[in-house]
Design goal:
The chain has a single domain, classed as Rossmann fold, CATH 3.40.50.300. Helices cover 44% and strands 16% of the residues. It has 226 residues and is of the alpha/beta class.
């Protein structure tokens, strides 16, 4: 199925995991903005050089660099049969700019997916998540019984595959950084929520609650997209 989709959700919402399900179900390309940056920098493209200058200074890459990189990626051969864009836009200004360039290039957008999650639950999910070395999309979290890591010889292991290597991201324990990301995401005037509301007048916005289990969230999402 030829589908072009944006997927948005707060950290800890399971956006990446649900994105993997969507990619497999509809056989479309999963496009992550972080990967686009790294690829352009690695290939030493003009946009990659420019973005690296900002990244090296610890600054955000301007939209007039980010959006052309994203557009270039969406026009590559493997995206002809559809794509799932993950990680952009993050605010209202970016949403309007992205929509304008898609319209100019004649690239359709079929759905915007919002993975809905309460801010406090999101924070617990971030701070409690543990990453499986075999598959990062295996959900493990010390605060939620349904996906709590199992124990083997007194050590936590992946509750899905039994992998004995579960890691913690340092940034996941930084409450100040988490609160800063949330202040951007949950801002319904200028932030990511505002961007989602903007798209509601343009395309079909699909909202799925993520406070339920992973399986139930996936099933609900697939029903909405079918």
């Amino acid at each position: 199925m030829d589908l072009n989709i944006l997927i948005l959700g707060p950290s800890g919402s399971g956006k990446g995991t649900q994105g993997a399900v969507i990619q497999k179900r509809f056989r479309i390309q999963h496009v992550e903005t972080g990967v686009i940056f790294r690829d352009n920098i690695k290939r030493d493209t003009e946009l990659g050089k420019k973005s690296k200058e900002y990244i090296d200074m610890g600054e955000l890459v301007p939209d007039d660099i980010t959006i052309p990189m994203i557009l270039s990626r969406l026009k590559e051969a493997d995206c002809i049969s559809g794509w799932l864009l993950d990680g952009f836009p993050r605010n209202l200004v970016q949403a309007a700019a992205l929509w304008e360039v898609l319209q100019k290039e004649g690239i359709k957008l079929d759905y915007v997916i919002e993975i809905v999650l309460d801010k406090d639950i999101s924070k617990k999910r971030i701070m409690g998540r543990r990453f499986c070395a075999i598959d990062n999309n295996h959900p493990n979290n010390i605060y939620f019984d349904a996906i709590k890591p199992k124990e083997k010889n007194g050590k936590p292991v992946c509750h899905i595959c039994g992998c004995e290597s579960l890691t913690i991201r340092a940034e996941d324990q930084d409450e100040v950084a988490i609160d800063k990301r949330h202040s951007i995401y949950y801002d319904n005037e200028k932030g990511t929520i505002a961007a989602i509301n903007y798209f509601e007048t343009k395309v079909k916005v699909v909202r799925v609650e993520s406070h339920t289990g992973f399986k139930e969230t996936s099933e609900n999402l697939m029903k909405m997209l079918s």
